[in-house]
Each structure stands twice: as structure tokens, then as C-alpha cells.
UniProtKB/TrEMBL annotation:
<feature type="binding site">
    <location>
        <position position="152"/>
    </location>
    <ligand>
        <name>1-deoxy-D-xylulose 5-phosphate</name>
    </ligand>
</feature>
<dbReference type="InterPro" id="IPR036291">
    <property type="entry name" value="NAD(P)-bd_dom_sf"/>
</dbReference>
<keyword id="KW-0460">Magnesium</keyword>
<feature type="binding site">
    <location>
        <position position="221"/>
    </location>
    <ligand>
        <name>1-deoxy-D-xylulose 5-phosphate</name>
    </ligand>
</feature>
<feature type="binding site">
    <location>
        <position position="11"/>
    </location>
    <ligand>
        <name>NADPH</name>
    </ligand>
</feature>
<comment type="pathway">
    <text>Isoprenoid biosynthesis; isopentenyl diphosphate biosynthesis via DXP pathway; isopentenyl diphosphate from 1-deoxy-D-xylulose 5-phosphate: step 1/6.</text>
</comment>
<dbReference type="InterPro" id="IPR026877">
    <property type="entry name" value="DXPR_C"/>
</dbReference>
<dbReference type="InterPro" id="IPR003821">
    <property type="entry name" value="DXP_reductoisomerase"/>
</dbReference>
<feature type="binding site">
    <location>
        <position position="221"/>
    </location>
    <ligand>
        <name>Mn(2+)</name>
    </ligand>
</feature>
<feature type="binding site">
    <location>
        <position position="218"/>
    </location>
    <ligand>
        <name>1-deoxy-D-xylulose 5-phosphate</name>
    </ligand>
</feature>
<keyword id="KW-0560">Oxidoreductase</keyword>
<feature type="domain" description="1-deoxy-D-xylulose 5-phosphate reductoisomerase C-terminal">
    <location>
        <begin position="146"/>
        <end position="229"/>
    </location>
</feature>
<comment type="similarity">
    <text>Belongs to the DXR family.</text>
</comment>
<feature type="binding site">
    <location>
        <position position="152"/>
    </location>
    <ligand>
        <name>Mn(2+)</name>
    </ligand>
</feature>
<feature type="binding site">
    <location>
        <position position="125"/>
    </location>
    <ligand>
        <name>1-deoxy-D-xylulose 5-phosphate</name>
    </ligand>
</feature>
<dbReference type="InterPro" id="IPR013644">
    <property type="entry name" value="DXP_reductoisomerase_C"/>
</dbReference>
<keyword id="KW-0414">Isoprene biosynthesis</keyword>
């Protein structure tokens, strides 16, 4: 049995990971879980999976879980806050950590897990976006694997398997185009939150759904791909593929292109990461090529959806610039979800912050500087953007 912890067990990726465990025929065991405030969901998970450790970020929720475990005579260690998150990520009993918490909060626990020599099934984009250089260096020093869970990076990872990385010419990231594909700027001025959350292909959390609508999600994936596959930004191409059947492709030096295809189901890349280096059982629908009929491809409209170009720019500048990009985006998306700014303002705010804080880029790339700058960028966005 391969034993794991899930950071962010009640989110979209976390709940789908539970389904992967259910269907693993006992090959995967759940030892530790973390959540924020979802007490009822965590209790259901405790009853079904019987983890040994639970951490709740919210102190009141942790108290409720402790009381429940005490009344039910359950020998579960209940932890709280960031310290609890860090412990769940680095337990002696586990082999691998699936990090699916949203935002910068995932960076610290991921580093703790790496230093504890635990393999990482990575579903937290921000970790590599803001600290890719630090994370990949630490992974190499501790001889652990960073196994991508994003469907796009999992596809690239699979397409590269068995081939010499030095023969890689180009990474081709596919994008669905989001809910507003084909729309012009004038059509986006009065976009409502409810419309932005309606992704045409994938069932995702609120934050990532907005990122998909702005194409920021694809921009963050570009920066991730740079670090995961040691690929120059000029050799990373984004292609809109509305059917979302091809999850991404790689082109080799001889011009050959290998693509990974599959159903629109996140359980596939989750299972691949947790079972690596072998494949698991059939866990999602298979593709019927007679029904698909055609696959189409388009160039992304990065003038209308400028978050994509801003991501390429931040990645090429490097240093702390991706921290500025990511921090501004996280804060702006939250403001949009709270209906305090308009949809198009998200990218405007990111661009403004990249210019305003650009002098910070020359500072040393350390975890302390990343965390500090992230905090200051978010505070600026909130203080200057609330109507």
C-alpha cells in the first residue's frame, strides 16, 4: 500500500482523489488530511477512510473535530493552523503528499514535505509559479519526485516518458478557451461572477474557474511548465483546443509531436501521479473517436485576455516578478468574486502591480522575500481597488 496525505481534502481535487483511493483496490491508503472549515465533510471522510491525522486551518473547526473524535473514541490526532498543515505534509508514515490547497499557502507545506523526502503530487500551481527555482532545487537535493496533477502537465509528463529530455523542442499547452472564448473586450465589460464560474468543460473550484475565464490559469501553467520540464519560455506554446480531448503535446527536435488524449476527468492525472511509475485501473470514461468527429485548434486571443501575455512576461523577467503576478491575481480574483471589481479589472490590476513593484524583482529569491512581497502586493490591491 502506498500511503498518502491530502492537503485540501474537501476541494475539487481533494474529493476526486478520495474517489481514486476508493477505486484503488487497497493500493492507496489515506493517513492524513487537511481542510479549512468543512467540518461535516471531514467527519464523513473520517468515518469512511479512518485517517490517523486531521488538520483544520480554522481553529473553531479544529475544536469541533476534536470534540467529535473524543465523543466517538477515535484515536485521531487533530491539529490546527499552518503548523498542522506542515505536520500533515511531512508525516513519517507517508510516502507521498497530494497538495491541492489553493493559493500561496501551499508553498510552505510543500517545502516541508520535500525536506522530509516525500514525493509530491502537485496540484497547487502557486508553488512553482512563485518559487519554482527553489522548489525544483530542493527536490533534486532530496531526491524526490514532483509529479504533476494538472491535466496539461500530466499530459506533457506522460508524453516525455521514455524519451531524452534533450530532444524536446517545444511544449504545447492546450487550453479550452474558458467560458468567454471568442468574445471581444466590449462583451466582457459587464461580465457577472456567475457567468465567469460556468466553465464549459471542467468542474473546478471558484478561484481556478475565474483564472480559466481570464486565461490566467493557462499563464500560470506556462510558468509551471518552464520549471517542471526545464523548457525555455520561447519554446512553450499555448493552443486553444475547445474539445479538451488533447490535454497537451510535446514536439521533438525531429518535428515529431506526441500528444496525450483522454476524457475530461481529473481522476486520470490524479491516479497517474499517485501510482507512478505504473498505471492504475480504468477510472474514467474512454474516448469514442466516432463520436468526437473532429478536433479543432485556435490561436489564443491574448490581446483581449492579456493575463496570458502578462504571465509570459513575468516568467521571462523571473526572480520575484511571478510573485507579484500571482499575488495581484489572487487578490484581484477574490475582489471580483466578492463583486467589488469588474471582470476586466483583474488583468488591469495585475499589470499595474507588475509595474509598481518592479523594483522588488532585483531582491534575492528566498522564501522569506516571496512571502513578504506576496503579502504587500495583496494589501496594496485590496487597499486601492475596493469601490
Amino acid at each position: 500500500m502506498r500511503k498518502l496525505s491530502i492537503l485540501g481534502v474537501t476541494g475539487s481535487i481533494g474529493t476526486q482523489t478520495l474517489d481514486v483511493i476508493r477505486k484503488s483496490n487497497g493500493e492507496l491508503g489515506l493517513i492524513g488530511i487537511t481542510a479549512n472549515t468543512s467540518v461535516e465533510k471531514v467527519i464523513e471522510i473520517i468515518e469512511e477512510f479512518k485517517p490517523l491525522y486531521v488538520a483544520m486551518m480554522d481553529l473553531k473547526s479544529a475544536y469541533e473535530i476534536k470534540n467529535y473524535c473524543k465523543k466517538q473514541n477515535k484515536a485521531i490526532e487533530v491539529l490546527e493552523g499552518i503548523e498542522g498543515l506542515n505536520k500533515i505534509a511531512s508525516l513519517d508514515e507517508i510516502d507521498i503528499v497530494l497538495t491541492s490547497v489553493v493559493g500561496m499557502i501551499g508553498l510552505g507545506p510543500t517545502m516541508k514535505a520535500i525536506k522530509a523526502k516525500k514525493d509530491i503530487a502537485l496540484a497547487n500551481k502557486e508553488t512553482l509559479v512563485v518559487a519554482g527555482e527553489i522548489v525544483m532545487k530542493a527536490a533534486k537535493e532530496n531526491n524526490i519526485k514532483i509529479l504533476p496533477v494538472d491535466s496539461e502537465h500530466s499530459a506533457i509528463f506522460q508524453a516525455l516518458r521514455g524519451n531524452d529530455i534533450n530532444t524536446l523542442r517545444k511544449v504545447i499547452l492546450t487550453a479550452s478557451g474558458g467560458p468567454f472564448r471568442g468574445k471581444i473586450i466590449d462583451e466582457l465589460k459587464e461580465i457577472k461572477v456567475e457567468d465567469a464560474l460556468k466553465h464549459p468543460k471542467w468542474n473546478m473550484g471558484r478561484k481556478i474557474s475565474i483564472d480559466s475565464a481570464t486565461l490566467m490559469n493557462k499563464g500560470l501553467e506556462v510558468i509551471e511548465a518552464h520549471w517542471l520540464f526545464n523548457c525555455d519560455y520561447d519554446n512553450i506554446q499555448v493552443v486553444v483546443h475547445p474539445q479538451s480531448i488533447i490535454h497537451s503535446m510535446v514536439e521533438y527536435t525531429d518535428g515529431s509531436i506526441i500528444a496525450q488524449l483522454g476524457a475530461q476527468d481529473m481522476k486520470l492525472p490524479i491516479q497517474y501521479a499517485l501510482n507512478y511509475e505504473k498505471r492504475g485501473n480504468l477510472i474514467a470514461d474512454t474516448i469514442d473517436f466516432y463520436e468526437i468527429s473532429k478536433l479543432t485548434f485556435e490561436k489564443p486571443d491574448s490581446d483581449t485576455f492579456k493575463a496570458l501575455n502578462l504571465s509570459f512576461k513575468a516568467g521571462k523577467i523571473g526572480g520575484l516578478m511571478p510573485t507579484i503576478l500571482n499575488g495581484a491575481n489572487e487578490a484581484a480574483v477574490e475582489l471580483f468574486l466578492d463583486k467589488k471589481i469588474k471582470f476586466l479589472e483583474i488583468s488591469d490590476i495585475i499589470e499595474k502591480c507588475m509595474e509598481l513593484f518592479k523594483a522588488e524583482v532585483k531582491n534575492e529569491l528566498t522564501l522569506e522575500n516571496i512571502i513578504d512581497l506576496d503579502k504587500r502586493v495583496k494589501e496594496y490591491v485590496v487597499e486601492t481597488s475596493v469601490l
